[in-house]
Design goal:
It is a single chain. The protein is mostly beta strands. The chain contains no helices and 5 strands. A 5-stranded antiparallel beta sheet has the order 1-2-3-4-5, with no helix packed on it. Strand 1 and strand 2 form a beta hairpin. The protein is elongated. The relative contact order is 0.23.
């Protein structure tokens, strides 16, 4: 989900879980971030921070990731 501020900044959050047959435990991921729309969707910057717990269903395999993406349409 997300919340738009002034039509230029969007705060976003998500939660995902996956429990496959071969997993010892469920793989859970929480994500938070922000999108900055400089020129609507033609020019934007996205920043995401993902907190993964039990990655690939392995107990205690926790990984945090940061993603910075830019988009420019010409």
């Amino acid at each position: 989900g997300g919340y738009m501020i002034n039509n230029t900044i969007e705060i976003v959050a998500a939660y995902q879980t996956q429990d496959a047959d071969g997993y010892a435990t469920s793989w859970d991921r929480t994500s938070v971030g922000a999108n900055w729309f400089i020129n609507k969707h033609d020019t934007k910057v996205q920043l995401s921070y993902r907190m993964g717990e039990n990655v690939d269903g392995e107990e205690g395999a926790d990984v945090d990731e940061v993603f910075l993406q830019t988009q420019f349409v010409f």
